[in-house]
Batch of 3 targets.
Target 1
Amino acid sequence: MDPSNLLDPRLLIVTGKGGVGKSTVAAALAVAGARTGRRTCLVEVEGRQTFSRLFDTSAWDFTEREFRPGIFGLSIDPEASLVEYLDMFYGARRLSKLVVGSTAVEFATTAAPGIKDVLLIGKVKEMERRRDGDGRFHYDLVVVDAPPTGRIVNFLRAPDATTEMVNVGPIRSQAQSLVDMLLDGRRTHLQLVTLLEEMPVQETVDSVAALRGLGVTLGPVVVNRVLTERFDAEGRKALTDDLEPAELAALLTDAGLDVGEDAAAALGQLGYSHLSRLGLQERMRDELRRRVTLPTIELPYVYGAEFGADAVGVLARKFEEAVT
Amino acid sequence: MTRRTADVLAAARKHDLAAAVATKHVIVCTGAGGVGKTTAAAALALAAARQGRRTIVLTIDPARRLAQSLGLRSLDNTPRPVKAVPGLDAMMLDMKRTFDEVIDRHASDRRRAEAIKSNRFYRQLSNSLAGTQEYMAMEKLYDLHAGGAYDCIVIDTPPTRNALDFLDAPKRLTDFLEGRFLKMFLSPGLAAGRTVGRVAAFGTGIFMKAASRITGAGVLGDLAEFFQSMEGMYEGFKNRAQSVYRLLQSHDSAFVVVASPETPALREARYFLQRLAQDGMPTAGLVVNRTTPPAPEALAHLTRPRAEAAARRLADGGPEHRAAAALLELHADRVDVHRREQRAVIAALHNVNPRALIEVPLMGSDVHDIAGLDAIEAYLVASEPSRSAP
């Protein structure tokens, strides 16, 4: 049960409940990939420009750009994927011009709801399979900041959903080949992200069951924003054995901080609420361990007045440690 | 921070949601996924019920334990009394059933309604058309409003990635239903004089060619059947969507935007506040859940460098010294995180007025019972009259 295979598959689909920090984790995985010598591509699928803001680059689009040495990034949307798809299968540039920018895309994708995802994942597959002139794969790692888990489960059921609707045509065979890719554990891992809080843990338990039922290979569960205890065992005991505000204030005064007893009492409170959060976290950790039989990788809560590329770098180190 | 943003922020912090809870007929909680919308909606409903208003909270996908504490066991579209709170009902939205009810209401006869409900495309549409869930939430909301059984209806919106879907949903669905391409299906002669409207004729236009290349031919057949059987219902849909929109725009309604203190959630909150203003929708406030509170007064002047310097001096001492050092580090971290969160809030509110800004601090444990909701309620609806809305 060790997480050292984290970066082994070529494709990592990062997903989880809303608000758990999927994008941050996807970014950190990509950075870890590049730092461990993998030619990496980070993919945004919902056009929210999360990564261009995070890495402070110009806006991302359908063109793969090397925004840092060894890491490429692109933002895919169904329309651009559709144009490429039509080009690829029909050489239909003229047709694609007519289709794109009209409501036709909206129409086609509404007609068979799985299609939007077929187009998005289709582009991902193209990158995952792309080979250079020398026959080697172009990317060693493709990291997708994917929609919440429910939609992925729907998509994996999609050959039923999509093909019930779409019983002929290229979309059907395409959909099937995408499902094959997603279910091939040597090529693809789904990377669940969670927090040590009640709802995210519950949802992770449910997702693991649903995804396993579909035959997906799951990577280690990434546990985001984990608080680390600031006290050593003796220090914690000293606090909880009634470290009186007056006593604490005296210690602080000796250390050059003459802040008074009220301040000392407030600091003590801070310590107790820290311990209470840690207690909750520990219960959730047990719950996760008990109900999900997958290795986990914990990422620390990143303090600091800014959350940006530096913070992502700190998290990426954790992934590097896990694989080396 | 500009002077103006600072003023808006200072003014907004003085207000809360007491007036909305006391007077509004509809309260919509909206925001990004995972920010605590359901909890906020439940706490607001609790507050309204406690004021003696007959209240219902309509939720989409509550956390299991919260649902249990509200007495909800299944998604069954049935209002259930919340045992611990007299005057409060709770209900979970059953999308499929709501959509079926819509069809039953608008179809000209039963046979036609059954034809629609058994169509393959309908079965897909009712589950997965973007915006369907939002549309159904609106439907149910209007239903409860028209039913007249409640003084106050609180609804939390579906956990969509893009909160804007919620406002767009009725319009998007009606736009789609009366769209140009749909008309091509339904009205012979619209597509450049060709007879379109029979399944066999779909291959004619270049658009149809493109569409069937993407979807496969079978889809278009089902689609045509679906739209043909829906004919005559569009007017009903459209009127309904417009009524919902008008209800949301009226002074009887209030929107509460919910966010977490992280930038992505706040960015969505900002777009939503802007959009509400643009559409003339009544905004009651922005709730930022799980915030890191500022240092208390006694510690307000203890800066990170001073705290760290003292912590270093204490670090090599006995257990009490090391405990004191850890407390100073916790303080320094909290000050940083508070500042980071405040910066994100300020950025989200640049040139945007939320009217009320309520920051609910991170609680010691997850909120999953009435006592937890009470604690949240205390922030959303503070009792001092000075905090009530203008």
Target 2
Amino acid sequence: MVAAAFDDPKLIANLVSKIASLGVSDAQLMEVCGTHTVSLAKYGMRALLPPGVRIVSGPGCPVCVTSDSDLSQAFQVAETENVTMATFGDMMRVPVGGVSLLKLKARGCDVRTVYSPFDIFAMPSDRETVLFGVGFETTSPGVAAVLREAQRRNAKNLSVISCFKLIPPALRALLESRDARIDGLILPGHVSTIIGSYAYDFLVKEFNVPCVIAGFEPVDLMLSIYALLKMIKTRKPMLVNTYTRSVRADGNTDAIRIVGEYFAPVESEWRGLGVIPDSGLALRDEHSDLDARRRFDLKPIKVPEPAGCMCPEVLKGVALPTDCPLFSKECTPENPVGPCMVSSEGTCAAYHNYG
Amino acid sequence: MSHELFEQVFSSRYGNRYLDAASDKAVLKIGKNRIAFTSDAFVMSPRRVPGCSLGSLSVFGTVNDLLTCGAKPLYLSSSFVIEEGFLFDELDQIASDMASAAKRCKVEVVTGDTKVVERGKADGVYVVTSGIGSVAPGVNVSGSNARVHDKVIVTGNVGNHGVAVMIARGEFGLSSDVRSDCSPLSGLMLPLLSKFRRRIHALRDPTRGGLATVLNEMSIESGVAMEVDEKNIPIEPSVRAACDLLGMDPLYMACEGTMVLIVDKRIEKPVLRELRRRGARNATTIGAIARSPRGKVTMTTPIGGKRYLGMLRGMSLPRIC
């Protein structure tokens, strides 16, 4: 079986000894993908790295970076008469001011979890169906395809609250802010499969940061960490793609095209990072009938962050979950205070669950 | 969630030494005999998945619960809550599945009840079974009996039932050949119990919350640490693949025909031989009991890393991307 090779203990041991022989004693790497966060924790990979090599998580969990304002808008729509709200898994449980979509569902609002956005076609056609659209470049193409299908079917009851976000502008904002020490970036394999490796050229050209596009299996990650540390040691920053079995230079052009047909970049608010230019996707004017924000006349809602919660710092990579006073005390996966503890891909949940 | 509900509502109202020790089973001393008593409600959707039906599960589930007390299952009750308009043929099929399941486990269904509720007040049919069994002298099985240096053994693959149900629900548009492991464990456990008696320290069937959850429960109840080796945990490739795809973890998926044993290390090899001889070909040792950290399960990952294996929290939801 081919897949077995990607967690082959011999390959890992070989990479671990190569990493040790580089002799890098102080480096901070950042990954920006919830699936990387989980893989690193689930396989206990940090324990295999030299003591001075740290890996912090950046804004790579779509649930976590969604702003409270966007969530509050979703609550408002879910509470509207004759609306069925559809959303993805963990988004159900993120609390804002003691409310969550799951709690609204318990109160009788029609809120449903979907795995594929196409599931919304199976929902009652005599009700307004609203998709709470959260995710990165990996999720938006599927939703664009749903919108095209809705138009083909002439389904007038569908709309989207678009909270889709784009990774490259967030990386730019993070590097420009210099808040977190970033000696090397582990770039997300799924997102890169869609947008292509060209999308990251600026990271090396403008910021001189070593970058590796990484897959999700232990060997993928360990190889990527080795490649980063080698560039750090030789001081030769480059963009390296170790996930060539999936990522091409120009990405998935079909996906990029359909996203461009329905959405246009706009400034967007990220939890922790604030408002970042051109980092979100809004429906294009010609498709405004599909835009739930216009359909339900939604206005931005100002919400204070929960007291003591360090999710913003965790998402920037300037604090570890264990630095937060609420971590594993007031804030646990059963009773989460911040989103990083809600999502299974959240950094706090990964630290809490995998130790 | 269900644990909180139990403590806040039921235990606070009618708690006692049996109920508070373990909510879903009790071993009662009646005269000179020890009688195990368990009860379980079965609400399955869909009511039939590859390898399992509501009827067979409602018998095997209770039989396996009795076995986790170290008991020989003897008699069952079965009660039905039926939605008005539920098809007679399906009810008949459920009863027929229960009959053959009971025959296979050598237990008798000796009492029961039937209630019909208005259409829309129930989802088809719910089944509640209770069971009693006798605990042989010398047998002393409890989640709090794990001792340092004991071995942790599983009788077979983990995660099949949970994945089979998830796929059968059809929510994810996946199809696969994963079958539920739903089956009675009497044929494996009764000979072991009579042969090794008090050297079998703890038994638990990893149903809700899966293997990870019962390992944590037993390490907490016994006040010991557990060290498991992930690469020794038997998981079918198709179960692993379905979980990988959906961002779920097979170690948290329910099993309905697998037992976790904690045994004296001196009987590790004979227990494994006995299990394999009786058809549990994938039975294997997955770990051992250690002194500290108490109440924690530490797992060595397939690549040699280490991490804690935590309890299932809330419900597992598929990931976004």
Target 3
Amino acid sequence: MGGQTIAQKILSSHSGARAEVGEIVVCDIDLVMGHDANGPMAIRAFEKMGGTRVTNPEKVVFVMDHMGPAPFEKAANLQAVCRNFAAEQGTQFMTIGEGVSHQIMAERGMARPGGLVLGSDSHTCTLGAFGAFATGVGATDLAACLLTGRNWFRVPETLKITFEGKLDPGCSTKDVILYVVGRVGADGGNYKSFEFYGDWLEDIGTADHMTLANMLVEMGCKCGFVCHSNLGIEADPDAVYAEETVIDLTRIEPGLAKPHTVDNYAPISELVGMKVDQGFLGSCTNGRIEDIRIVAAILAGRKIHEDVRFIVTPASKAVHIQAMAEGHIATLMEAGAVFFTPGCGGCVGTHGGVPADGEVVISSANRNFRGRMGNSKASIYLASPASVAAAMLTGVVTDPRMLAEQEGAHV
Amino acid sequence: MSDVALKYGDDISTDLIIAGKYTKTLNLQDLVDHAMEDIDPDFLSRVGDGAVLVAGKYFGCGSSREQAPVALKAAGIKVVLASSFARIFFRNAINIGLPIMECDTSSISDGDRIDFDIGTGTVTNVTTGAVIQAKPLPDNMVKILSAGGVVEYLKEQGSF
Ligand code: SF4
């Protein structure tokens, strides 16, 4: 019997039996998250199951992040369903403007190494940055957790990805993960757990670990782990992997995902000069203070191009307040950016920056499916915060490293 | 008994099945009205009284929105056949009682008449006479699907 991967260890500890790949196990859940878009369906399903009391309400949180403040009546009513249910059942509740669920669960330390988290949102895998088996489910699965405090899992195979070499300092973690998604493919990790390894993970910070974990679901993952030395949980040395891949960081340059799939990768050199209409800085991928700092450094004392709109949506209220304290809000607004309430904002296409027909958006978020930002006739290019900022300055796709060189030339 | 096949391509995301802007509702009809509209504006009239949705690889990728399988089921889709499914869509479909079968769909054309049997995992293309074998579902999923979904399953069983 070989050793266990991290996913196997967590499913074993939560099911009370050794979890072998491919088996179905039933586990107790440590943290259950529902948001305003899917939570109400879960609440209805819970009621249809005959549920009256939530099992372990202290382990349940509802977050109003997908549409806050409510842009129309239906949204307001759905939020009311969550608010009333949370009050009745004594669950945790985080209101509009607190931020994106994954960010605020991270800020509040709600996901622990070795924990098991289920959220009604596919990017719940972000919490793998903190060593939790965190996975997205639909509303009915969430309802099952509300009713029973448990759910069933198929024990996943694990894909091991090791980073080697040094990253060009002009590149960011987002450039790396876009490249990885392009290499592995949108369905290359379907049903699987991921474990990332490499010395590079020691050099980057928590925000970067979250960006990596966040985009795992763009390869179909069930869950994933960014295995740095302080993760708090590790795989057995003789764990068995379904597949192992090495990524050579020295080959990476800034890159983008072209419309309309996340794995449609192109190095930025292929797209330089393409006109853009709107920029979006935000989301659970890249809406953190670290991202705002990068963009503020690029835009300080300058104006965005007159033909573009730039929408900034901090991932959380805490991020927004921090950005204010550091002076970045004024910097960005003076440059021409528009701020939107912390939360999902334009990322999901309900409000907060819907593009017009035929327009091109450059976005720091994680999805570029047709229609994603609310208009199926627009095109979305995913990029790093620095690449978004560079395009806002020039009005066209621009390699942020060139900007730095020009700056250097001025000094 | 056979139903008409509506055939689509690879990588159909849940954003395409039902756009995020239309999911803000608990009313099934609102979802049905906008199902698949960005990919096939005639979807609803083509489904008519019932149809089989046929797709290529990685059907249902993207958002965890359960409104996607719910919209398809409510619109009259009897089964989804695809060469592969995205994980969350797969689970959601079983949970809400929408039958899905993972099989090689390359020989099925739009408009073919299809007959299917979840129990045996066979898909019969009545138009061409071809019989396709689908990948078997794990036992616990068959149980959930036979109950009509997780709501009914848990109502009967109380727990997993
Ligand atoms: S920011 Fe975007 S990707 Fe993240 S949870 Fe919100 S809608 Fe989903």
